[in-house]
């Protein structure tokens, strides 16, 4: 408890110094937190717990032995002043390669140097070149075997989506708020705003020269929806209509077409040229170029530019880096090495970390290993989910892979159970559209699922694997539990969980986990279906989605969280998009982010004086300290430089909304 007598004495002293300003106990405690930071180092602050007999204030705060024995403090780690690369990358990041000047075979120059010709890099280069900038793109893959990952481009409100396909226009405000819920408020707000407001524009730009027949071949996922479909499931929206490249123009061909348009606009592409080292000043606060090493000849080339964009992909094949940056996934897999199918080695991120850049400050995300979603023969349907002990453990409809999936990843053991009744078709057709849900709800998809259900009827304790997964069916719930091999205690828990589920549906409120009762289909009439599945988390995924920490203008951040002048990151080399893990708000949102943010970055670099958002420590007004130690702006109102709203992400440049964010141009 607080020493009230001492508090009163200090209140009187401070009140006397401040003249007639009253200081309440609440105000004192709030101010004490500010003073404590400086006072603790001098041994002036004692913890709230009463001192034991014979202990002095200086002894409690100053004795390392006392702190160790009571847990009142922590030993110094010795990392203060180090870069994130020095701390996080200890043992695996390594040093920059030493490349002598006479080893560089040639030097080329352009306004913008882009490292990587994938979704993000090509979009950046093409948009910048179309707007008049000189652009060079270096790509590690050979040109004749170049390939791009993925098939789907998630976006909002393109002309293709709204006018051609007929998908209703979405609220960008709802999207941004829902997305931040997925990301626990850690998503870079300006990047999210750019995607919400301009991703449709970017998609239309990407396919602007496609023939009418080619546009007809593009597939809108989860469209059309069933009659009466409610897009809102609890707090989340089903964002149907992601554009899938499944026709005569596949995704690799689509990216190559965009590369050709960039070349037509004047951009130069050099393939088989992996970047190996940034060209930078001594303290790593400014980047002026990049050095590549030819994959065939081993020759070095230096490319100089006012802006260097790292769009080199993720960390998928670098397990040491993956384990460190995506630590949640590493720990969920009980320290099984993380790896991804992308094949990218994280070299772009490593180059920046070696000069002081920071990476995503969060748990680190990837596509899959951070979450557990039980995929039945109906895929990620939100029926009743039970853990290995037959207990319901979450709101199954709450947020798809990221939110409810994270709950499942922490449940005991290696298995889970899914249960539903005979109304499987209503369940199947009314689930939340997004990752791990079916991509089509048409007659063919319904017929496929019906064949799985029909095959399971009468299969008894053997079950049926027509779908590729063992599905069980029984006339009673007790039999179903037996067929799935449940022990008596687990069976009792399961029956009780189903009873509570049905009661919540009937009452119209789920007080247990808060699920929208309109999505709680009753489990009352047979035949009943069950799917026991193994629970595996951690280790592997499709691609990692955590990269370098960036500002809203995609500037890579270094010491003091200041932008490194001239250095930008986009795509999977960039953080800020999926800081807590890849979410389920929309199919194809990863590639959609790469395309849109590459598009807006190219525009920014070609049209803005981007040096105005990076000061290299110059021009920062003094931050004056008030008498109580709290920082405030310089005299004169809103302040200048760091004292007031910064010219970068926090404040708007001349003309209103931040460039590329807010309302679309």
UniProtKB/TrEMBL annotation:
Residues covered by region (Disordered): 51-80, 625-665
Cofactor(s) needed for function: FAD
Keywords: FAD, Flavoprotein, Oxidoreductase
Residues of the FAD-dependent oxidoreductase 2 FAD-binding domain: 111-578
Keyword Flavoprotein annotated: yes
Compositional bias annotation for Gly residues: 634-665
The name this protein goes by in its record: FAD-dependent oxidoreductase
Organism (species): Adlercreutzia shanghongiae
């Amino acid at each position: 408890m607080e020493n009230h007598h001492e508090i009163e004495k200090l209140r009187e002293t401070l009140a006397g110094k401040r003249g007639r300003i009253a200081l309440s106990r609440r105000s004192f405690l709030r101010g004490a937190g500010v003073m404590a930071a400086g006072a603790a180092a001098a041994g002036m602050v004692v913890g709230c717990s009463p001192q034991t007999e014979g202990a002095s204030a200086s002894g409690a705060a100053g004795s390392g032995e006392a702190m160790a024995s009571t847990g009142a403090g922590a030993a110094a780690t010795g990392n203060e002043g180090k870069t994130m690369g020095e701390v996080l990358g200890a043992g695996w990041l390594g040093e920059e390669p030493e490349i002598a000047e006479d080893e560089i075979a040639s030097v080329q120059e352009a306004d913008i140097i882009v490292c990587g010709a994938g979704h993000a890099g090509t979009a950046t280069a093409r948009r910048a070149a179309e707007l008049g900038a000189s652009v060079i793109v270096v790509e590690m893959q050979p040109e004749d075997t170049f390939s791009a990952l993925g098939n789907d481009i998630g976006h909002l409100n393109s002309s293709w989506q709204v006018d051609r396909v007929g998908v209703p226009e979405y609220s960008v405000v709802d999207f941004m708020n829902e997305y931040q819920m997925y990301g626990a408020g850690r998503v870079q707000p300006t990047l999210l705003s750019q995607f919400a407001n301009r991703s449709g524009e970017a998609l239309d730009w990407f396919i602007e020269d496609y023939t009418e027949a080619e546009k007809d071949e593009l597939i809108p996922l989860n469209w059309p929806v069933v009659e009466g479909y409610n897009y809102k499931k609890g707090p989340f929206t089903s964002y149907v209509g992601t554009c899938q490249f499944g026709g005569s123009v596949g995704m690799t061909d689509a990216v190559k077409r965009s590369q050709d348009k960039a070349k037509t606009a004047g951009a130069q592409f050099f393939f088989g040229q992996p970047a190996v080292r940034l060209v930078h000043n001594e303290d790593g606060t400014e980047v002026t170029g990049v050095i590549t090493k030819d994959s065939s000849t081993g020759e070095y080339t230096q490319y100089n530019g006012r802006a260097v964009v790292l769009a080199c992909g993720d960390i998928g094949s670098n397990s040491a880096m993956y384990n460190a940056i995506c630590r949640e996934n590493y720990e969920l897999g009980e320290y099984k090495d993380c790896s991804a199918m992308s094949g990218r080695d994280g070299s772009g991120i490593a180059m920046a970390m070696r000069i002081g850049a920071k990476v995503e400050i969060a748990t680190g995300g990837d596509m899959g290993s951070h979450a557990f979603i039980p995929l039945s023969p109906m895929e990620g349907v939100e029926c009743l989910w039970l853990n290995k002990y037959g207990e319901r453990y979450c709101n199954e409809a709450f947020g798809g892979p990221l939110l409810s999936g994270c709950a499942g990843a922490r449940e005991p053991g290696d298995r889970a159970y899914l249960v539903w009744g005979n109304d499987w078709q209503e369940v199947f057709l009314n689930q939340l559209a997004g990752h791990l849900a079916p991509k089509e709800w048409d007659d063919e998809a319904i017929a496929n699922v019906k064949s799985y259900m029909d095959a399971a009827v009468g299969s008894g304790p053997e079950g049926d694997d027509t779908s590729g997964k063992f599905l069980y069916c029984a006339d009673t719930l007790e039999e179903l539990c037996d067929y799935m091999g449940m022990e008596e205690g687990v069976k009792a828990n399961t029956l009780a969980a189903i009873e509570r589920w049905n009661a919540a549906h009937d009452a119209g409120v789920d007080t247990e986990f808060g699920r929208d009762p309109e999505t709680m289909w009753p489990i009352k009439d047979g035949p009943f279906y069950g799917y026991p599945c193994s629970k595996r988390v951690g280790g592997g995924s499709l691609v990692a989605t955590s990269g370098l920490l960036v500002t809203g203008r995609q500037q890579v951040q270094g010491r003091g969280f200041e932008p490194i002048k001239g250095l930008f990151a986009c795509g999977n080399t960039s953080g800020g998009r999926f800081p807590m893990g890849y979410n389920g708000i929309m199919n194809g949102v990863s590639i959609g982010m790469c395309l849109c943010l590459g598009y807006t970055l190219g525009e920014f670099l070609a049209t803005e004086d981007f040096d105005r958002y990076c000061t290299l420590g110059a021009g920062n007004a003094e931050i004056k300290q008030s008498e109580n130690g709290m920082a405030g702006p310089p005299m004169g109102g809103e302040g200048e430089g760091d004292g007031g709203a910064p010219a970068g992400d926090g404040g708007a440049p001349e003309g209103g909304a931040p460039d590329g964010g807010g309302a679309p141009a």
